[in-house]
Amino acid sequence: MRYMAMAAITATATATRRAEGVTETMRAVSIIAGVAVGLAGLFFASQSASLVAVRGNSQLAAQIGVFPARAQERRAIAAVETDETGISNVAPALDEAQSAFAISPLRTEAAAILALGMEDSIERNAALDATTRLQQRGRLLNFAQLQRAATANDLETGLRAVDRLLTLYPSAREQLFPVLGSFLARDGAIAIFRDLLSRDPSWVNGLFGLRDIEPIAQKRLGQLRLEMGRYAGTSELIDRRLVARLAAQGFLSEAAGVYALISDDSGQTADPLSIDWQDAVPPFDWDLQTERDFHARTSTGRDGLRVRIDSGRGGTIAERLVAVPEGASSLLITHELDNTDRAAPLVLQASCADSAEAAQAEMRGDGSTRLALPAGDCSVARIVISGRALSGQRPIRGEVTGLRFTAD
Fold this sequence. Notes:
Elements: H1 2-20, H2 33-52, H3 55-64, H4 68-79, E1 81-83, E2 86-89, H5 94-103, H6 108-116, H7 121-134, H8 139-152, H9 155-168, H10 173-184, H11 189-197, H12 204-208, H13 215-228, H14 236-248, H15 252-262, E3 287-288, E4 290-291, E5 294-298, E6 305-309, E7 313-323, E8 330-337, E9 346-352, E10 358-363, E11 366-372, E12 380-389, E13 396-406
Antiparallel strand pairs: 1-2, 3-7, 4-5, 5-6, 6-13, 7-12, 8-11, 8-13, 9-10, 9-12
Helix pairs in contact: 1-7, 2-4, 2-8, 3-4, 4-5, 5-6, 6-7, 6-8, 7-8, 8-9, 9-10, 9-11, 10-13, 11-13, 13-14, 13-15, 14-15
């Protein structure tokens, strides 16, 4: 009977493959197998433990229940052996799986166990694929596909298995999101992710919120976010954090693109040389200090910054990245500051975003201060406003009323 059941699965696989004209092509890519398989083992260990606790009830249900196949399938799942590498042995589960499958061939977890029990790898993979086409739901089924993909370096099979697990079993998301990050770092991943994202998956925020991933994976997140357009199902917070991460890792092109995609243009000035005071999406908007005795706050009407630095405080109080208009050679800042002799100055600094060399000028009293931009090709500038009021000095008070590029 067991071999008849296995043959039925294989026959289904063969018929399905012929009907769809599918030719399986294995991708020779590098998947971090230890991560993916380790997660499979973790989940099956916890799942098996919970099912063992109800094994007695399952046995009774198999004897007298209206749905004996379901109870037998549960017993089969509980009998699957796992270790740190994932599913290690299905032999103890085969009899129960066979009984469940004989009653109902739609019990996909039982079918998956029977498929995993096949010695021939080609037949085993064909049976797993056929079962997946028949019914994509099934934690064991999809982890089996993930484990198979990790072993065979099959990026597409693995990624689509993770997609199904994330969609069907939200409780597994925290552990599975890092696997998405490892897939994203592999060559060939962008096209598969693009297809999955076109279907508006429920896990989109978790994907774009990934932090501890390889730099190339972070860059590709920026590229994918740009392809999705302004309204992509991501939250405003997730988008802002993505911009900040991309900029921090030096992916300024992707960061600037996502910023332009999601930013609100309502507060921006009509003058292309003038720099606005928005602070919604740092670092391409202002990143402002907000402490009571050390802050820069937007003025009424968002036409400047009110500055306060008390004695004994100091450092950067406002900074941002900004695209440098063609032909611009300097910055002009206007200010209304405490103009007594004992007052410390505010300092304006400008540097190319990818350079540590900065030009700076001091601002005192009421009036304007001009600062030449660093020489060379600088398409994105980092602008920093800072100050320090030493103990015994008067605190720095006042307002920065305007900031713009100029062409001398």
